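Re: [help] complex structure
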Amino acid sequence: MNAVAELPPKSFAVKPKLDESGTPIGELLEVSMGPHHPSTHGVFRMDVSLDGETVVKLKPVFGYLHRNHEKIGENISYLASMPYTDRLDYFCSMTNNWAYALTIEKLAGLAVPERAEYIRVIMAELTRLQNHTCLIGFFVQDMGALGTPMMYAFREREKILDLFESVSGARMMCNYMRFGGVRVDVNDEWLAQTKKVVGDYGNFLDEFEAFLTQNEILLARTQFVGVLPRDLAVSASVTGPMLRASGVNYDLRKVDKYGIYSRFDFQVPVGEHGDVYDRYMMRVLEMRESIKILQQALRDIPAGPVMDPKAKLRGFRPKPGEAYGRVEAPKGELGFYIISDGSPNPYRYRVRPPSFVNLTILEDMCLGHRIADAVVILGSVDIVLGEVDR
Amino acid sequence: MEALEQIKARLGAALPLTKLDILPNECSGGERSLLVEPGRAFDVAKFLRDDAQLKLDYCSNVTGIDWPEAKIKTKVTKKVLVEGVEKEVEEIVETLRSGHLEVVYHLYSMELQHGPIVLRLRTENRADKTHLPSLTPVWRGAEFQEREVYDLYGVIFDGHPDLRRILMWDEFVGFPMRRDYVAPDDFEYEPTPHDEVLAEAKKHYPTTEVKA
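Output below.
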């Protein structure tokens, strides 16, 4: 996977110098990095202990944006939570909507019409494109490529957000899906415009990759940095591109085959070193696969209704029971766990956020690296604090 | 994946368990769950992870549920003699459910790509006996999620490497996700680290009133 394969397959992590009793020589410097550090992607803090510039301890601290999303969800009706899910991972409101709708459909036994399934796939893959593009923009900015690459990324993202806006009325807080379908149908004009955006996207990726993939600085900063071993990744419930960069072939679009993903021909990129470079490459390759899925979906989308006629928007009361539904969000496995007691509000409403769980092994990846590498490693995890803190 | 009954039988054969129940799920698309006694939960978790047929190496979701004491109304049909004729009569029976906290684990296998198995643990009550064994040594991915359950529900996980509040601030009192939690009218009166700063700042206030 790595462009320079001759490099020794080892981690660049160094161990602090210890005296005979095993304690580090000299004094450790404790740095509270954040919550307003620009590289922490929001209000996120890392309490770091440094030996010189080397990280010997790192504890992530978060909760600054905590609003107890789950408690709010238990006190309002099922449908009223839908716009709140937009605000979890505010880059990917469409996949958040889908995960929630999927769980409620499982709970209430609703069927989604064919056309709505296609629209959902199109929206989810567009979301993946813009999330990964933005992430790479932020990520190279963390490495010091200030401004310009991110603006390229945001220029492309804007085209996709325009598509979202024209169909749902909002660029980021789309609130588009409903239990049993989607809120409004898309028209032919929109599909034609999407085809154009998707068709051009490959060229943009070529252009973007020409700047980055073989870039000497990017290679030096990312290869063999923040290596996440395969076993630890599985045990620590890491999901999404981070898991696949560590060499585990586990993509819910292939494993669960939710929606209509079994109909599309696409591959799951898998890394081998589990370092930051592989995580970057995973996102680039996933975008190329997303383009393939989008082209197939846009070609095959049938005509028809977009809502299950059995679905009730008002007075929605699923029967008692519980369901756990999950989708492959751009950041990893996004799950919803809902318990119904037959009332209009859920008894228990739980969000399983991918970036929250992926942070579990942040310390393990950063130990032994320089403090500047911790920034890059955090950038490669791809967190959104709206989802971490809920 | 094998049926839950089969897993239960194999678990019962491998480990000396006194309590192992399969809880029904009224939702047709949802999964039933395994209720395990807390004392044996660690061994059960290890068995589920290491068993060659299951290999549940991936703990996807950990969450808490609060079940306060409640009167449960269930409909029971009874045969009653009405004027010499036996008739079926529906009767509503009230039973008292004791309060407890529940922790739910959703387990999948990344290697064999199957799942989920839903594992449930229950505390004795909601007040003082809220200890459960931590499964973080089995699945590292439970670390932050168990901290969250502790933070929001007050379940104390014995054996957790770093059990601290994770979303609420350290000085916060109470467990906000419990059903009976009442949010204070004004969060400013909650003790926050800021209080010390304010008290400190008061030293600099003028001690005598300044007249205009």
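Residues 16 and 24 of chain A are 6 Å apart (CA to CA).
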